[in-house]
Amino acid sequence: MKTITDYEMRIIAFVDILGFKNLVDESVSDHYSYLRIHDALEDFRKVKKEKENEFYDRDVKVTTFSDSLVISYPLDFVGGLFHILYDLTYLQFILLQKGVFVRGGITIGKLRHVQNEIFGPAMNTAYMLESTKAIYPRIIISEDVINKGIDNTYEKTKDTALDAYSWKYESEEVYELLKKDKDGWYTLDYLRMLDEMDTIEDYIFAMEKIRGLIEKSIEIHRNNEHIVKKYIWVAEYFNTVLSEFTVEHENDIDIIEINGWINK
Questions:
Q1: What is the mean pLDDT of the chain?
Q2: d(CA 79, CA 84)
Q3: Closest Cα partner for 82 from 172, 17, 2?
Q4: Is the pLDDT of residue 261 over 60?
Q5: For residue 263, pLDDT beyond 50
Q6: Rounded to 5 degrees, what are φ and ψ at 263?
Q7: b/e per residue, 169-179, with b = 16+ CB within 10 A?
Q8: Backbone phi and psi for residue 140, each to the nearest 5 degrees, phi listed first
Q9: In this model, does residue 149 exceed pLDDT 90?
Q10: Which among 137, 122, 116, 121 has a CA at the least distance from the CA of 48?
Q11: Of 50, 93, 104, 71, nearest to 192 (Cα)?
Q12: What's the CA gap between 175 and 178, in Å, rounded?
C-alpha cells in the first residue's frame, strides 16, 4: 500500500487575478485584454521558475493553475515569511503596471503541497481569505499569522541576546513590507517600491502608468458600485503613497480625483 506523508506546517499564499472572467470575455474581441492575461500568467510562471531554481533543495513549492498562484514555504524555512511577502509585493507592483489587479490571502497551517497536489486546512483558509475577506486588490494576512511566521522563521542560535536581535531584525523586515488597513487586516504595501527601482525616474514612470490604469478601471466600472469600490480602494491607497512620496521628491504626478470619478 502506498504511504503518503502527513501534512506539514507551511506558510501558504493563494493569489487570484481580479475580474479574470471579464478579462477573458473581453479578450475575444480586445487584443489588449488578451495580452494582459498572457502577460500576467507568464509572470506567474516566472515566479514558479525563479523559486524552483533558487530554492530547489529547500522544499519551496509554487503551483499555477488557471488564474491562480499558490506559493508555500516550510514553516521552519529561515526568512520564509519575508521571502513570500517580498515575492508577492514585487509581483503585485509589476502586474499593476500591466493593468492586472490581484488579491489573495496568506496563512500558516497544515498543508500537503507536492507538485500539483495541494490540499489541507491551510489551503482552505488561504482560499477563503482571498475569496471572502480580501475583497479589494490586496493580499491580506492577520497579525497573528505574521507573528507566528516571525517566531518560526527567524534565524535561531543558542545565544539569547543574538536570538532576540535576530527576532527583532526579522520582525522589522517583515512589517516594512506591510501596511495595516482600516478593517484591521495587514496588506502588502506594494506601491512603496522606490528602493527596488534603478532610479527615481523609473519609479515615477511606473506610478504614472499605474495612475492611468486605476483611473481607466474606475471609468469602466463607474456604474457598478460593487466593482468600482474595489478600484476606489486602490485609488485611495495610491493617493496616500503618492502624497508621502511627493513630500520627499519632486514629481509631476497628480493624485486621483476620486470624488470626480464617483460623481460622473
A1: 89
A2: 9
A3: 172
A4: no
A5: no
A6: -85, 0
A7: ebbebbbebbb
A8: -110, 155
A9: yes
A10: 116
A11: 93
A12: 5
Centroid of chain to Cα 228: 20
Q: What is the largest CA-CA distance in the chain?
A: 67
SS3 content of the chain, % helix, strand, coil (to 5): 55, 20, 30
CB 106 within 8 A of CB 139: yes
The residue written with cell numbers 526579522 in the block is: 170
Taking only Cα atoms into account, the Rg of the chain, rounded to an integer number of angstroms, comes to: 19
User: Residue range 148-160: average pLDDT?
Assistant: 92
3-state SS assignment for residue 136: coil
pTM summary value: 0.90
Separation of alpha carbons 51 and 46, rounded Å: 8
Cβ(102)–Cβ(16) below 8 Å: yes
Using the structure block, give the residue that is written with the C-alpha cell 500591466.
98
Q: For residue range 71-122, list pLDDT tens digits in order.
A: 999 999 999 999 999 999 999 999 999 999 999 999 999 999 987 789 999 9
* Neighbour tally for 165: CB within 10 Å: 14
In this structure, the dihedral spanned by the alpha carbons of residues 26, 32, 35 and 36, taken in order and rounded to 10 degrees, is -70
Q: What is the pLDDT of residue 106?
A: 98
Three cell numbers written together for 29: 474581441
